[in-house]
Design a protein that fits this description.
Blueprint lengths: L1 H18 L4 H63 L7 H18 L1 H14 L5 H14 L11 E6 L6 E12 L6 E11 L3 E8 L10 H9 L12 H16 L1
Helix pairs in contact: 2-3, 3-4
């Protein structure tokens, strides 16, 4: 009976030792291996996700630029490519080149006296059309703003004004100046166009010329800031007169 008790007690103690998951001697190697694997998996997952997002950030502007350029080339090429297809000429890009040459010739023709007259007649007809005249006027205002021939209808300068509340500023474009006649004296006002929907719609504000801040930004830089939603905003903006004064002082300092 004693031998049977000893024989049965030994396997039970061994089985308890083998099946005890809380035994630190038995479970420490397994727990350390599992924690190491988890740490490696977490590090690998974090590294892969960061590199993937980096690739997306780099390729997104490239893909958008390529897509817009390809769409523009196909769109412009579609104006004259059907004409070449009827003539039996199938060369990709030939319609695009023809369209560029056509636009250049239109610019040369409109610059002449005869072309300006024909253009004025066509513009007069378009302005008599309902609904179409509003679209034409808005698009003409934008094209006149970036036109190399600055005329009276184009944006004059980029302006920063206090709008809509004190302590807040808004970008705008000076379109003209007006002299307000008052009993206590005349006051010079600037007509400032503040876009509210990119460049198509906006508010016309009459602001005292002394309250208008004229930054050292060109018209195209101002349009880029508004169209991009402020993402192309320079880190520092200085008034144009301050920059001019600094440029005048530099030679004097060097001479001294």
């Amino acid at each position: 009976m004693a031998d049977e008790k000893d024989a049965t007690s030994v396997p039970l103690s061994q089985s308890v030792d083998e099946e005890d998951p809380e035994n630190p001697v038995k479970s420490s190697p397994n727990s350390s291996n599992s924690s190491t694997r988890k740490a490696c998996c977490f590090f690998l997952q974090s590294w892969v996700s960061k590199k993937f997002m980096t690739g997306c950030v780099v390729l997104f502007p490239v893909a958008v630029t390529f897509f817009v350029t390809w769409w523009f080339v196909q769109f412009v090429d579609g104006f004259f490519s059907p004409l070449y297809e009827q003539l039996g000429i199938d060369i990709f890009g030939l319609g695009f080149v023809t369209s560029l040459v056509f636009v250049f010739l239109v610019g040369v023709f409109v610059s002449s006296w005869l072309g300006a007259t024909v253009f004025w007649i066509g513009e007069w007809i378009i302005k008599r059309m309902p609904f179409v005249k509003h679209i034409y006027s808005a698009s003409k205002q934008i094209s006149a703003a970036i036109s190399p021939d600055q005329n009276t209808t184009a944006f004059k300068e980029v302006a920063i004004i206090r709008h809509p509340r004190v302590g807040e500023y808004a970008f705008g474009f000076i379109t003209s100046t007006v002299l307000l006649q008052r009993d206590d004296g005349d006051e010079e006002l600037c007509s400032v166009f503040v876009p509210t929907n990119h460049l198509y719609l906006g508010d016309i504000l009459l602001v005292n010329s002394k309250d208008v801040i004229r930054p050292n930004l060109s018209i195209r830089e101002g349009i880029e800031i508004i169209v991009s939603g402020g993402m192309t905003m320079p880190q520092r903006i200085s008034p144009a007169d301050r920059v001019a004064r600094q440029n005048e002082r530099i030679p004097l300092n060097r001479i001294v």
